[in-house]
Automatic annotation (TrEMBL):
InterPro entries tied to this protein: NRAMP_fam (IPR001046)
Key words of the record: Membrane, Transmembrane, Transmembrane helix
Cellular localization per UniProt: Membrane
Native species: Pontibacter akesuensis
Coiled-coil segments: none
Topology in membrane: Multi-pass membrane protein
Pfam families: Nramp
Top-level taxon in the UniProt lineage: Bacteria
Protein name: Mn2+ and Fe2+ transporters of the NRAMP family
Length: 397
């Protein structure tokens, strides 16, 4: 009974780590902007992306668990050097997006207390660092992610209720949309399970000892819970935004999600946005730093021995870049384009590994998950490559 209780705590922790890593400043903005563009039909995009997200996470987490190896080690077994490339992409993307996450946390504190975004970023970084200074940092990280996740759900649900969205229309258009936006679907999939987010929960379970074929049921449960939490936040934010835009109110293009909260609940709503932005950003800072460093542990025993200090260094570097340079646009553009390629590369590698006996033994991967995975790999590879091709000229403009 004690083991079962301990496992549930870890499973919830991994699920919320993955979910809150996904729910960052970009997540809030994307959801609001797409709702403004597609109105109630955005519900269909959310539904389809949820199905694809679950397929991605079940594929990746199960292979990590059954092989009892981190993603970079699996990749190196598939093709020597592939794990190094994957690690480089994950860490580069994680660092770039962490600069944005730190900035988002600073913005949240700016909304709440009127302090500068730079000062807010330093305070948020100190809180994130404090988590990894704790004696049992893993457990503290799990609990912190759960508390912040529940807080975001409650606050966004309140704003959704206040904005009085046309729920009936949203439900109807979820299954019979007026239009289908493929780019929106791919953007949501990449934003929810792309880059380092793909591995956040899987690596957390591995570090906590939830691994092996006997643990596959627990791993699958945790993966579905993670997507469910992120999706619940997405749905509530969609309804909140829909309630505002369906009344013909205009959102501020400079900060669409803040505009939704303010239009729905006045100054109180604006302050609640500050809490949600801070919660979303600081949990993403923690998730990004933890997962990025987990990709470096295979390359040096010293990194594994001093993991928490390396994570703290990662957060400090992200914060220093934000304070001194701001959010470097070119780096973020490149990282965003690379992020579109990380998912097909990482998922494709996991699918290939799922059928290599030297990695997974005599484990038989479910055919339906393979079909789902191959579909996502093909679509994301095409659109990720197209996006990168479009963005390269901007880097040298």
């Amino acid at each position: 009974m004690k083991k079962q209780k301990r496992n549930w705590s870890v499973l919830l922790g991994a699920a919320f780590l993955m979910a809150t890593s996904a729910v960052g400043p970009g997540f809030l903005t994307q959801t609001t902007v797409f709702t403004q563009q597609l109105m109630a039909s955005f519900g269909f995009v959310i539904l389809l992306s949820i199905i694809l997200d679950i397929g991605v996470q079940l594929n990746v987490w199960r292979v990590i668990a059954v092989s009892e190896r981190r993603a970079q080690d699996i990749a190196n077994l598939v093709l020597p050097g592939l794990g190094v490339l994957l690690s480089l992409l994950i860490v580069l993307g994680g660092l770039a997006f962490n600069i944005g996450n730190v900035g988002g946390a600073g913005l949240g504190l700016n909304v709440l207390f009127g302090i500068s975004a730079e000062t807010g970023a330093m305070i948020a970084a100190a809180v994130a660092i404090g988590v990894f200074l704790m004696r049992e940092a893993g457990k503290v990280m799990d609990r912190f992610a759960q508390v912040m996740g529940f807080l975001m759900i409650l606050l966004i649900l309140f704003v959704a209720f206040t904005s009085a969205p046309p729920v009936g229309e949203a439900v109807a258009k979820t299954f019979m949309p007026d239009e289908v936006d493929v780019i929106a679907i791919i953007t949501l999939v990449g934003g929810t399970v792309g880059g380092y987010i793909t591995f956040a929960g899987g690596h957390r379970l591995l570090d906590a000892g939830i691994k092996g074929r006997d643990a596959l049921s627990e791993v699958s449960t945790s993966a579905v819970m993670g997507i469910s939490v992120a999706s619940l936040i997405r749905v509530f934010l969609f309804l909140a935004a829909l309630g505002v835009v369906s009344k013909g109110l205009t959102l501020d293009p400079a900060n669409p999600p803040a505009s939704v909260f303010q239009q729905a609940a006045g100054n109180l709503g604006y302050k609640l946005f500050g809490v949600v932005m801070l919660s979303a950003a600081i949990t993403s800072v923690i998730g990004s730093a933890y997962t990025s460093v987990s990709f470096l542990k295979s390359f040096s025993p010293k990194i594994q021995q001093h993991e928490n200090w390396v994570i703290i260094g990662f957060i400090l570097v992200s914060t220093a870049i934000f304070i001194t340079i701001g959010q470097p646009v070119r780096l973020l553009i490149l990282a965003g384009a690379l992020n579109g390629l990380i998912l097909p590369l990482s998922l494709g590698t996991m699918l290939f590994a799922a059928y290599k006996p030297k990695i997974v033994g005599d484990y038989r991967h479910p055919l339906l998950l393979t079909v789902f995975g191959v579909l996502v790999v093909l679509v994301m590879a095409y659109l990720g490559g197209y996006t990168l091709w479009q963005q390269i000229p901007k880097l040298f403009a």
